[in-house]
Amino acid sequence: MFFSFHSEAETTIAVLDNIIDTTHPKLRPYLHYNSGEVLNSYDDDRNGKVDDVNGWNFINEDHLVFNEAQRGDFPKEVFLYYELRAKKTLDTITDDEMQEYKDLRKDDDFMDKRKEFSRYTHGSHVACLALDKRNYPKYIRKSDIKLFPVTYLGDATKGEFLLKDFVPTKSTSTSKRIRHIENYIEYYISFMRNKFLKAIDYSASHADIIHASWGQGYGSTENIVENLFEEQFGDERAKNFKKKRSSMTRDFMAGLIRNGERIVRKHSDKLFVFSAGNRKENTDESPHYPSSIKAANAITVGASHNGEKAYFSNFGRSSVTISAPGIAIRSCTPERRRIPINGTSQAAPQVTKASSIIREILIRKGIRPTPSMIKEIIVRTAKYQKDLVGFNSSSGALNLKAAIRLTERLRR
User: Fold this and answer.
1) Confidence (pTM)
2) Distance between CA 243 and CA 225 in Å, rounded?
3) Does the first or last residue of the chain, that is N or C, have fewer Cβ atoms within 10 Å of its Cβ?
4) Spatial distance between the Cα atoms of 401 and 381, rounded to a whole number of angstroms
């Protein structure tokens, strides 16, 4: 297949995640370059971000989207852990390996280090999947699809991404205490809105596709609300407010999703790809943020395995768009070792990759690549799986080859 025009097309993917290793050989050649900026400790393009040549770190408020100090700071057992967990999931683990896996999980110090490693490697693992250069059509160059890393996740210690702690009121009035909790939740919703808005506005100024493999689930939100009541009333008395906690949780999630939808629809010319979450929840009933955002320019991805829903994946006939493989998915780490990880975080970037290829083909054919068109191609070419019926709106899983074939057949 050859197209005679638009040979210089370029698609940029903004990956909002933890830190991302921009020196990794699978990523470094494909970084999007902000032509308005130079590394000179000056804000050349006057966007309020100094030296954001290859992305921005919203947590530390600087251009360093990776922490070199952490490189090599993890025990070799973390790599063994992921290999053993993958074997356990695939039911190929031996008895000796299972015991080794159990021993690692019983080691609290190791598990703390493993969690830290997960935060350290998650962004790179996801980015390498979204930028995976295998199976590109021959007429699309590897350099045609770029990465724009944005550090969105993490614990900020300053700036606009710093979440203020809840401080219980000293009032003895029950109604005032409840109102105090409601005020904090309203602040939390506003905080999350502003955080999402700033990151999306910034990403949209550089990228065509915005990817987010993270989220806040309904269960997690319940825990936040429960903790607020326990801080304010004490563990025992907090149990008396079950109905109120439930309504606050619903309002909390509704506020997050409502604000998120406004932001996504504001950028209707950008395609958003979200991971559905890993809590086994029906997100039609128990929403997940931001993946429960419904918009023509948003795709939510669940995880599948061998034609079935992955055991951990969130699902929803109307809230999840499509599934993609999410069991023992191998990708890169900053330590230059590939590891297998389970998750909708690993399923979603496969759809982002497919979307970027579709976009490039459409441009070469002289067709304006709208997000809704890309989404329709992804959905129409999904591989039907009877065991996915009811778990997503397409009743199927990503089929990259079919999506490419359909796109190539389209006419202006």
Assistant:
1) 0.96
2) 12
3) C
4) 9
Amino acid at 227: N
Structural domains of the chain, ranges and CATH numbers in brackets: 11-409 (3.40.50.200)
* Alpha carbon distance 325, 342 (integer Å): 9
pLDDT of residue 4: 41
Distance in angstroms (rounded) separating the CA atoms of residues 357 and 351: 10
Report pLDDT digits (tens) over 158-195.
999 999 999 999 999 999 999 999 999 999 999 999 99
36 burial via Cβ count (<10 Å: 0-12, 13-18, 19+) = middle
What's the token pair of residue 117? 């490693």
Please write the tens of the pLDDT for every residue from 204-242.
Answer: 999 999 999 999 999 999 999 999 999 999 999 999 999
Q: Which of 186, 138, 39 is nearest to 360 (CA)?
A: 138
The two three-digit tokens of residue 78, written as one number: 């973390």
Count of residues for the chain? 412
Q: Tell me the per-residue pLDDT of 357-401, one tens digit each, with 9 for 90 and over.
A: 999 999 999 999 999 999 999 999 999 999 999 999 999 999 999
Distance (Å, whole) CA 150 – CA 58: 7
Q: What is the average pLDDT across 65-92?
A: 96
Contact (Cβ atoms closer than 8 angstroms) between residue 177 and residue 171: yes
Single-letter amino acid code for the residue at 125? H
How many Cα atoms sit within 13 Å of 182 on the Cβ side? 12
CA distance 224 to 289: 14
> How far does CA 357 lie from the centroid of its chain?
19
Looking up tokens 């990817």 gives: 211
CB-based burial label for 89 (10 Å; 0-12, 13-18, 19+): middle
d(CA 360, CA 140): 7
Cβ contact 325:304 at 8 Å? yes
Residue corresponding to tokens 């074997």? 87
Distance CA 283, CA 254 (A): 12
Distance CA 405, CA 242 (A): 53
Round to whole Å and give the CA distance between 318 and 300. 10
* Pick from 268, 273, 356, 348: nearest CA to 30: 356
Strand 298-305, strand 308-309: pairing: antiparallel
How far is it, in rounded angstroms, from Cα 23 to Cα 301? 28
Q: Is residue 366 a contact partner of residue 164, using CB atoms and an 8 Å limit?
A: no
